[in-house]
Amino acid sequence: MIPPSPYARQLDAIPVTRESVDILGGTTELWSYGPPDAGTTIVMVHGFRGDHHGLEPLVAQFPDYRSVLADLPGFGISTPLDVDGALGVRHDIHGYSAWLRELVGQLGVDRGTTRLVVLGHSFGSIIVSAALSEGLRADDVVLVNPIAAPALSGPRGILTRLAVFYYKVGAWLPERPGFAWLRLRLVTRFISITMAKTRDAGLRRWIHDQHDRFFGAFTNRRVVLDAFEASVSNDVSEYASRITPPTLLVASDRDDITPVSAQERLVAAIPDARLVVLEGVGHLVHYEKPREAAAAIEAFLAERRPGHPRPEQAAGEVS
């Protein structure tokens, strides 16, 4: 029996459409939630080995916005980028950055009437930051559990080193056993148990089920190995000085990947940024505390800024 989602009722009340778009030699599957003519569009980028399902609990908190979620190339049901063809786009940070910039361009967001917010979780925070440094234009930026420093320097860097060993074995093995190794359910469950901090038994069961169902959804071994290398070889701090839109960091006090001290250094390095630290949660804010994260995002978007409309003004209200 599949554990019920705590956010299903909220999500079911929001209209959703799905479409396929061709980007850099691959087919990206994306889902658009909420009113298509909303004054605010939030483009969300999920983390490593996830897919669009992971950020749906956040989407559920924004019924009045247009939220756009895509499966990263090579993950979920999106196909890989054109690695071996004429384009030669790799599944590294620059490749995913180029993909995100093209995706946002294809959405056709009218910046004159619509406020564009770009949100990234975990590995997605690195992709968003790289894209912004390479020309992506947005009105606001939200980074949830951002990778603020090299993953190996985190409070439980030993886990990252174990992950490096795990993926090296996956690369060393022949194709079929290597692919099976990288999808081991036992490893997925270990990661899920380690990262989940909630004491709510029902919520934990649902989180574990989400990881069991979607953590192994990647196209091939090459994609996941390249993306893993990108996730541990880059971090948001590399791009911080070039993130120019107003930016919100939503961090947590029990994150095993990036400590609060690194988040504090990161927020100081971004020209216009503020930091919210949620308590009692780790790297799975989007699963465990989406309501609290959404409240912080709403407060951030409601800030008055010179020449920058509030969300309701972007939707057409005249003050």
TrEMBL record:
This is Alpha/beta hydrolase. InterPro entries: AB_hydrolase_1 (IPR000073), AB_hydrolase_fold (IPR029058), AB_hydrolase_sf (IPR050266), Epox_hydrolase-like (IPR000639). One of its GO terms (molecular function) is hydrolase activity. SUPFAM superfamilies: alpha/beta-Hydrolases. GO terms for cellular component: membrane. Signal peptide: none annotated. Residues 42-295 form the AB hydrolase-1 domain. Keywords: Hydrolase. PANTHER family: HYDROLASE, PUTATIVE (AFU_ORTHOLOGUE AFUA_2G14860)-RELATED (PTHR43798:SF33), MONOACYLGLYCEROL LIPASE (PTHR43798).
